[in-house]
Design a protein that fits this description.
The protein is mainly alpha-helical. It is 55% helix and 7% strand. It is built from 13 helices and 5 strands. The protein starts with a helix and ends in a 9-residue tail after the last helix.
Length: 286
C-alpha cells in the first residue's frame, strides 16, 4: 500500500487507483495465459498420444538429439545450454517428475545433493515437501524422503555417460555458485524449464521438426506433457499401476488427468487378454 506522499507524487488517489487497476489487470491477463487445463494440454499432444507406444517416438527423438550434440574440445556456454536441455528432457522422458520438482533437484560435487553417487550407486532422494501431492497421496505422505535407486535402471544406465559428461564439463559453466542440477541465467528457472521442453519438442518432435521425428499436427509441448505421454504409454499395455508409480500418483488420478485411454483401446486389450488366457477345450465330437 503506497503512503500519502507516494500517492501525491503519482497525481492523487484517482491516478493511483488507475495505476493499481492496470497493474492487477496485467497480472490477471498473464495468469490466464499461464493456466492450461488438462483437456487443453492433452489435446495439444493428441497426435502423439493416439499412436501406439508414444514413448518410443520420444526416445527416437532423443536419439537424434544426441547425435547432434556438440563435443567441443573447449566447451562453450552455448554448448552447455544445449547439453542441459538434452539431460533435462532425457530425465523427464523416463522419470516424469513435475517441472517444479525437476527444477528443484540439487547436485553437489561432494555428492551431498539430492542427485548423488554414493558407494558407486547413483540415486535420487526427493523430500516429500517438494512433491505437490506429498501429503495428499496416502502412500507418499508416509515417507519424508522418496529415495530412488537409479543405477541399474536401463534408461539411466544408457544416459549415465552423458550425464557424467554434463556434470563434469558443462554444468560448471552454468552453475558455478548454484546448488541446483539445472541453472537459469535470468533467475527464472520456471520459464527456463518450460522453454527447454518447448524448444526441444519444436525442433525434434513436432509438426515443425526437420531434423527429428516429424508428427503431423503435433505442436510443441511443455514439461508437464511428458507425464501424459509416459502414463499413456504404460496404459496402452494395461499397466495402470505402473503408470501411477512412474508419475508418483494414484491410479484414479492417472485415469482422470493423464492417460489417454479411449474405449476402443480398452476393448482391444480385453479381447487380447481373452485370446491369451482362454484355451479352447477339445470337442467331444472329434
Amino acid at each position: 500500500m503506497p503512503n500519502q506522499e507516494e500517492i501525491q507524487s503519482i497525481g492523487g488517489w484517482r491516478q493511483a487507483c488507475q495505476r493499481a487497476y492496470k497493474y492487477l489487470s496485467e497480472i490477471k491477463s498473464r495468469a490466464k495465459r499461464e493456466i492450461v487445463s488438462t483437456s487443453d494440454r492433452k489435446s495439444n499432444i493428441l497426435p502423439l498420444l493416439i499412436l501406439d507406444n508414444p514413448l518410443d517416438f520420444v526416445q527416437e527423438a532423443l536419439r537424434l538429439t544426441r547425435s547432434s550434440l556438440p563435443f567441443s574440445v573447449v566447451p562453450s556456454l552455448k554448448d552447455a545450454l544445449i547439453w542441459q536441455r538434452y539431460i533435462f528432457v532425457s530425465i523427464l522422458a523416463s522419470f516424469p517428475l513435475r517441472a517444479r520438482t525437476m527444477r528443484s533437484i540439487t547436485y553437489h560435487h561432494d555428492q551431498k545433493g539430492e542427485l548423488a553417487l554414493r558407494d558407486g550407486v547413483w540415486s535420487l532422494s526427493i523430500p516429500n515437501s517438494k512433491l505437490k501431492n506429498g501429503q495428499a497421496n496416502s502412500s507418499l505422505k508416509r515417507e519424508e524422503v522418496i529415495s530412488i535407486r537409479l543405477s541399474g535402471r536401463r534408461w539411466f544406465d544408457r544416459l549415465l555417460p552423458d550425464l557424467e559428461r554434463f556434470l563434469t564439463f558443462y554444468r560448471p559453466l552454468l552453475c558455478q555458485n548454484n546448488s541446483f542440477l539445472f541453472a537459469s541465467f535470468e533467475g527464472n528457472l520456471r520459464n527456463m524449464s518450460y522453454d527447454m521442453a518447448i524448444s526441444w519438442s519444436r525442433e525434434y518432435l513436432s509438426q515443425y521438426s526437420k531434423v527429428g521425428v516429424y508428427i503431423p499436427g503435433l505442436r510443441p509441448f511443455g514439461p508437464h506433457s511428458f507425464r501424459d505421454i509416459v502414463a499413456t504409454h504404460f496404459v496402452q499395455h494395461g499397466e495402470y499401476e505402473k503408470a501411477a508409480a512412474a508419475l508418483m500418483e494414484d491410479v484414479r488420478t492417472v485415469r482422470r488427468h493423464y492417460a489417454h485411454d479411449p474405449m476402443h483401446r480398452q476393448v482391444g486389450r480385453a479381447f487380447g487378454y481373452l485370446d491369451e488366457t482362454v484355451k479352447p477345450r477339445p470337442s467331444p465330437f472329434s
